[in-house]
Design goal:
elongated; alpha/beta; 427 residues; Immunoglobulin-like; 2 domains; five-stranded antiparallel beta sheet; seven-stranded mixed beta sheet
């Protein structure tokens, strides 16, 4: 797939050519080339089809491109990767009618249209891109107001499917598009109206936890050598970290063992050279192994099962017990982050909750935590609800105390229970 910079240059060149010719610029996405379509197919991406148009006239609306009057952005929920949406189309004629065709990796996506508070104004949507399909049609988005490029409206209706029209919007040979209309999203709606849990299963989503942290980026940062020097050299690594450090420790479950060479502890990034890795492993192996043991399935599984025992139906909305379904909670990331207080750290825990017809994500975070380079989710994501208040801050050494309380496991249990209680209260 051509880079976004290349697409922008191509679009800007088209607009400039039109201007020189004395024509008004045509606001429309750029047509994908056959080579781009082949690269998307061979790279495992899916062609995502959508349409943006005036509800009253059917006139197409250009979103997301460099000259668009309505910004559009999609973020992949699994890894936080964001990009503009709407800069390309299958054919010029389809693009003029508001049809967008863009290659995206499979996954769940969060789409925002327009500026400002997208959720509060009903301009946030979610959709799924399944693997193994040639094209996924996520719906046609009607702008329900007299839209003009000079005065773009921001009232958008519920996406609907136009199967016959969608077939014509695809390039020749692309095959049929599977209709998967996007749904309007808000955190408050996602956390309301859940059925009574018939039982709650819990686990750690190891794939998502691993992808939450870009270890290679952390290890390869050019500033790591300077950080070592500022700490008094490699010999000072263990001392600085043991006294609480100044930045943050990143923990990925269950990847402590393989991450020893690229774990950030007290702001010191090991992995640039083998000697750095060996020092970190020697100084921090007991701590990392201890933290890993706290969240091992055999250890934390019974604790989560006990904590998530289904409460009496009376704790929910009256009559909710007539609708019951199994729930599942997955820990999707676990990060030990620096608190505003010097030398103190809190455990950031994100969870994903599912039951038939419902999905919600929660984060128990560390307020005002400094961003960590390489972290895929440096801040709370717009699809994550709050539950349980801020994480408790403690000295870093407390988490590694040989005979201390299992603070990491406690933090995971507390975050999961708080999210469950929030869902029960929202019924």
């Amino acid at each position: 797939m051509r880079s976004s910079r290349g697409v922008e240059r191509r679009a800007l060149g088209l607009l400039a050519g039109l201007a020189l010719a004395g024509c008004a610029p045509v606001l429309a996405p750029v047509e994908l080339t056959p080579a781009e379509l082949r690269r998307a197919a061979s790279g495992g991406e899916v062609l995502v089809l959508a349409r943006f148009h005036r509800a009253d006239t059917g006139e197409g609306i250009f979103v997301g491109g460099p000259a668009a009057s309505v910004p559009a952005q999609v973020t992949r929920i699994e890894d936080g990767q964001a990009r503009t949406f709407g800069g390309t189309t299958g054919t010029v004629a389809a693009g003029a009618r508001g049809w967008v065709l863009q290659a995206l990796p499979p996954g769940a996506y969060y789409l925002t249209l327009g500026a400002g508070d997208a959720q509060g104004n009903g301009r946030a949507f979610t959709f799924a891109v399944p693997p193994g399909v040639g094209a996924a049609y996520v719906g046609s988005f009607p702008f329900e107001c007299p839209y003009t490029a000079a005065q773009p409206c921001q009232a958008i209706g519920v996406p609907v499917a136009e199967p016959a029209a969608a077939w014509l919007a695809l390039p020749e040979g692309a095959g049929p598009a599977r209709p998967l209309p996007a749904t309007r999203f808000s955190v408050s709606a996602a956390t309301r109206g859940w059925p009574t849990p018939a039982g709650i299963a819990a686990g750690i989503d190891s794939v998502a936890v691993q992808s939450a942290i870009n270890w290679e980026d952390l290890a390869g940062r050019e500033g790591s050598r300077g950080t070592f020097r500022a700490a008094g050299g490699i010999a000072g690594l263990g001392l600085a970290a043991g006294q609480g450090g100044t930045a943050g420790a990143i923990i990925a479950v269950p990847f402590f063992a393989v991450a020893l060479g690229t774990v950030a502890v007290g702001g010191l990034v090991a992995g640039a050279e083998a000697i750095h890795r060996s020092v970190v492993e020697r100084e921090w192996r007991p701590c990392l192994e201890g933290l890993s043991a706290q969240t091992a399935p055999a250890v934390i599984g019974p604790r989560l099962a006990e904590a998530l025992a289904v409460p009496p139906p009376a704790t929910g909305r009256r009559g909710a017990e007539t609708s019951m379904a199994p729930w599942r909670a997955d820990v999707t990331r676990l990060v030990l982050r620096r608190c505003p207080e010097a030398g103190a750290y809190g455990v950031e825990v994100a969870t994903r909750w599912t039951t038939p017809g419902h999905e919600a994500r929660f984060l128990r975070g560390v307020p005002d935590a400094p961003p960590l380079p390489g972290l895929a989710f440096p801040y709370r994501m717009p699809w994550e609800a709050e539950a349980g208040g801020p994480a408790t801050c403690r000295p870093l050494a407390d988490y590694c105390a040989a005979r201390g309380a299992p603070l990491l496991a406690d933090a995971v249990v507390e975050a999961v229970v708080a999210a469950r209680d929030a869902l029960l209260a929202g019924r």
